[in-house]
Design brief:
With about 100 residues, this protein is an all-alpha fold. The protein contains three helices and no strands. It is about 85% helix and about 0% strand. The longest helix is centred in the first third of the chain and has 29 residues. About 20% of the residues are buried.
Length: about 100
């Protein structure tokens, strides 16, 4: 990282885009309603909750990154690592949802 503050801004922007996508996904999942399956209502609610949790996790990761001192490369590195953990966990949740719906 040659310019930690620039990396911080880029990653924060990326997480902002992820927030917007999560908002859009939540709206779409909510609008779709319950899937026409046995226990569809429960599945629909579970998917909505997973997307809402994802959005909250991304929001918290972005807030942590934005709070990091732009002059402190260690603090930025720690915030980026924490955000990476959130996104990795989110990927696991998405795979689990895919397994439920296939």
């Amino acid at each position: 990282m040659t310019d930690p503050a620039a990396a911080q801004r880029v990653y924060s922007s990326y997480l902002g885009e992820a927030q917007a996508k999560a908002d859009q996904a939540l709206q779409e999942v909510t609008a779709a309603g319950a899937p026409p399956l046995a226990a569809g209502e429960q599945l629909g609610q579970a998917v909505q909750q997973q997307v809402a949790d994802l959005r909250q996790d991304v929001t918290e990761a972005r807030a942590q990154l934005d709070r990091a001192d732009p002059g402190n490369p260690v603090a930025i590195g720690q915030a980026v690592a924490a955000a990476g953990n959130v996104l990795g966990s989110a990927g696991s949740n998405v795979q689990a949802i895919g397994a439920l719906t296939s």
